[in-house]
Prior knowledge:
The chain has 15 helices and 26 strands.
Amino acid sequence: MTYPERATRRLRLPADDRSPAAARAAVRAVLTEAGLTELLDETLLLTTELATNGVVHAGTDISLAVAADPIGVRVTVTDYRSGGIEPADMAMPEVTAQGGRGLLLVDRFASSWGTTHDQTGKSIWFRIDRDPDAAPPVPRPADSDPAEHTAADLDGLASLLTVATSLQTRLPVDQLVTELLARLHDATGAAGGTIEYDSGDGTGAAVLAKFGDPSPVVVECDLPLTSPACGRLTLSGTPDPSWKPLAELVAERIALAVQIDRMRTEEQRRSGWLTYLAEAGELLAHSLDEHLTVALIPQLIVPQLGRWATVHLVGDTGVLRLSAITHTAEDELEVQRARLDAATVALQTSLASDGWTGMELPVPRGLDGIAVPLSARGATIGVLTVGRPDGRQHSSEERAVVADLAKRSALALDNARIHAERQAVAHELQAALMPGSLPDVSGVSFAAEYLPAEAFGTEVGGDFYDATELPEGKLWVAIGDVCGKGAQAAAVTGVVRDVLRVMARDGRPLPRALELLNATLLEQPGDLRYATLASALLERRPGGGLGAMLCLSGHEKPLLLKASGETEWVGTEGTAVGLFPHVKVNPAQVRLDIGDALVFFTDGVTERRDAAVMFGHDRIVRAVRDVAGKPARAIATALLEAVQQFSPDAPRDDIAILVVRCEPG
């Protein structure tokens, strides 16, 4: 098959609004003659942009050169603005720039492009090649039948009003509307035209595209848009009967493009709000501190949903109090506080009314926004107020987002309060299970450390220690680990500590006291009510020092730390209490000289983990050896610090340490 010879056009166009249309006509003629109509959409678009830039921004005549060959088409637009070349002329313009966007489109659609400059002006050229896999062009014979000419003209008319699907997906809506209006200009030859659009959001109508002198209006068509959006297309000039149906067809095409873009934008916005709510909810869920949560809420809102936001919480007396405030302008915070003080009474009144779901903020002036109650689990705990965004009121979609965020915030605040109450109860109960103070007696010093597991911050731990003074100058000490956590462990801990104290003060031998404790635990209802214990009865030896009767009931051996630095694990294992009907008790005698210390601990020390490695017994020896001979407080502190520094992770088990040191006197 023989391809047509190269088709060319060269023309010089004046600096007026009709020149882009003339340039488009020349390009269309060349592409039709060369049989390259599949390149029409992109070539017309780029030609319009470059011709408009030359006429409007350069303000000079322009020259157009179009050359088509069997492979593609090359278009060159030259303006005659004189002067030197500025560095900015070579830079790619921003996407949002009002002028020079033609280069962005050229770079996107052209197969290749470039610029040339001289003292008289500059030229921009681009080339678009046809798809090599497409069918070869079929030129129209010069002597074809008139009926075929008519069909071809109808095809050409259709192409004026149809933008290729590929172009629709690659062009912003404003440029797509401009291209459609330019095609209507080509078909009608009108002197001017405009596309006006009002989205219905209160911002008013805007001109999406225009050409020439838009007045006086001789043809007007409404854009068939879904309410509340509206718009119109107008044409000016000497009307022709064909203008109206063509204008209506273009109006439908423009309305379709605008509607699709609006739906796409709304879908992106909805998706963005859903992501925003999900991320905000996750942040709120991770905060279990009431003060941090209430401070976080307005930070999540500003500036996405308003210029300022506040949280008022209901106090113990039922009166609202300002708990958190955030403003985009920090210098306006105090002024905003004063305005909110004046509105608190109105908020309090609304909060007291039945069924209140929200309202516009009351006077004083400058307090524009909305207020939403913070309600969780059937109770209203406060009010969230959000100031309006700059220059407009909240949209219905933004109000829905604020209401959703208020529900999430209220639930997070209520959870934080419940967590704080549980934590306070746990701390009080834990404190009640520990001795208020350790004995202060001559010849013996005590020190203790207790670190609850952070994984169970609202639960009572199972570890405990105790020490008390007995008649005849004797002392009783114990440390233990009760099975489980929470209320059940607290109940068992209370039983263990109280039974041992009573038995010790009653003068019962320690082995007998442990047997009675074992029987008592077995009588308790429920399973797994057992404990491991290390207990000792201390008494002063003639000539100085201490003697200790040590009983281990399934517990770790304590470490005897000599004043000289020597260490020894002391005691003989026995049976944990609360497991078997008969408990095995193996008393062992331990001697403490002046400066010696007995170091008791629970398995939270030895089983402290750093990845797969446990703290173990050897590290206990290394931790306390350097403080041998020092006060009991120094020994307990050194061991706790070593355990804490062993791993960066929070403790997953309670840690209890009790040190008994033999002192002079």
